[in-house]
Amino acid sequence: MRLSQFGGTVAAFAVVLGFGLAASEPGAQDFGDTPYVQTPANVVKAMLDTAKVGPKDFVIDLGSGDGRMVITAAKEYGARGFGVDHDVRLVRLANENAAKAGVADRAVFYARDLYKTDVHRASVMSIYLLPEVNLMVRPKLFRELRPGTRVVSHDYDMGEWKPDAQFTLDAPGKPVGRDPVSKVYYWIVPANVTGDWVVHVRSGAKPQEFSLKLAQKFQFAEGSAEAAGTRVELENVKLDGPRLSFKARLPDAAGQVVMHEFTGRVAGDTIEGTFKTDPAARAMSWRARRVGGKVAIGPEIDPKLAELKAGSGVQ
Predict the structure, then answer these.
(1) With 0-12 CB in 10 A as exposed, 13-18 as middle and 19+ as buried, what is 217?
(2) How confident is residue 305, by pLDDT bands cut at 50, 70 and 90?
């Protein structure tokens, strides 16, 4: 994998952050305008294990370097995928390594601009990019990746998008940094549930209807429900990829206000699932349709990136 800058604008940020010195570290190789830093094998395995990669997965690696992430995913986990890098020499090396490993049919590498790479096929996205590049590519991930896609990053986070999991591990032989350790960050891309929803439930002979209003910042959501002229706050709202769950005190079919526990799967502007009014009760169906108010789940420009941009003088 490549600790990658991907372009002149980002290179200016790298100077501000001091990353221009990376190539002088022992073991770092200069492949043109960007230092190429190998990810230690144990870190590659930890990233793939964290993302729970398996034979059904399609892995895309941004900044793929010598190809070890996708090659390992193919050879040891049975996955398929591709990697992109802007250095044609590294791309050639990665494809040669895939052929030597016997997985050239399942691990392919391209010389491409990561911002112009279509990543919608990914079920797992791996990245080892400079911190400001993570922030610049983040909006693309939300636009193109399906809810539920797993994203795993080596060493650098995603600013305000807090990881669902993170840890530090020893990284023997790591050529950059003061200590031979690496950080791994993991996210699950959340569905966008923002806006106003009309909900239909079947809890008796006559279908019932109420409204939902949901707000969201990345994977954290909150909201309220309104039924029969009464507004209540949702409780225990959880968003896990395309899966949404919450509780609300609403009237049941008999008009009694009871706690409803909802679970559902988000697909674009619809949610379908089941609910219960008692843990021992039979689950009943519900369906919601978004009728307006959809907004982005996070800022296009992270405050950290805006600060870096202002400090660097880059427009």
Answers:
(1) middle
(2) confident
* 34 pLDDT tier (thresholds 50, 70, 90): very low
Q: Which long-range contacts (CB under 8 A, 24 or more apart) does 248-255 make?
A: 250/210, 250/225, 251/208, 251/227, 252/203, 252/277, 253/203, 253/204, 253/205, 253/206, 253/208, 254/204
Coil, strand or helix: which one is 229?
coil
Residue 179 DSSP label: S
For the four alpha carbons of 125, 128, 129 and 134, in that order, the dihedral sign comes to positive
Tokens of 8: 């002149």
> Which residues have C-beta within 8 Å of that of residue 112, sequence separation ≥ 6?
84, 85, 86
Q: Tokens for 299, please give them.
A: 């800022």
- Euclidean distance between CA atoms 131 and 134, whole angstroms: 5
Q: Which residue has the tokens 């996210």?
A: 187
Pick 117 or 208 by higher pLDDT: 117
Give the alpha-carbon dihedral of 163, 58, 119, 171, to 10 degrees.
50
Encoded amino acid at 178, one letter: R
Q: Quick one: which of 118, 119, 65 has its CA closest to 92?
A: 65
CB neighbours of 192 closer than 8 A, spacing ≥ 6?
147, 216, 266, 294, 296, 297
Tell me the one-letter amino acid at 180.
Answer: P
pLDDT band at 160 (very low <50, low <70, confident <90, very high): very high
pLDDT tens for 62-99 read 999 999 999 999 999 999 999 999 899 999 999 999 99
Q: Residue 283 carries which DSSP code?
A: P
Checking if the pLDDT of 256 tops 80, the result is yes
Q: How far apart are CA 154 and CA 182, in angstroms?
A: 7
**For residue 286, is pLDDT > 50?**
yes
